[in-house]
Amino acid sequence: MTARLLGTLLTVLFLGLFGILEATKISCRNEDGEAVDWFTFYKLPKRQDEASRETGLEYLYLDSTTRSWSRSKQLMNATKSVLGRTLQQLYEASASENNSTAYLIYNDGVPKSVNYNRKYGHSKVPEEGYDYPPTGRRNGQAGICITFKYNQYEAIDSQLLVYNPNIYSCSIPVTFHMELIHMPQLCAGSSSSEIPGRHLTTLQSAQGQKFLHFAKSDSFLDDIFAAWIAQQLKTHLLTETWQRKRQELPSNCSLPHHVYNIKAIKISRHSYFSSYQDHAKWCISHKGTKNHWTCIGDLNRSPYQAFRSGGFICTQNQQIYRAFQGLVLYYENCN
Ligand SMILES: *[C@@H]1O[C@H](CO)[C@@H](O)[C@H](O)[C@H]1NC(C)=O
Ligand SMILES: *[C@@H]1O[C@H](CO)[C@@H](O)[C@H](O)[C@H]1NC(C)=O
Ligand SMILES: *[C@@H]1O[C@H](CO)[C@@H](O)[C@H](O)[C@H]1NC(C)=O
Ligand SMILES: *[C@@H]1O[C@H](CO)[C@@H](O)[C@H](O)[C@H]1NC(C)=O
Question: pTM of the full predicted structure?
Answer without folding.
Answer: 0.89
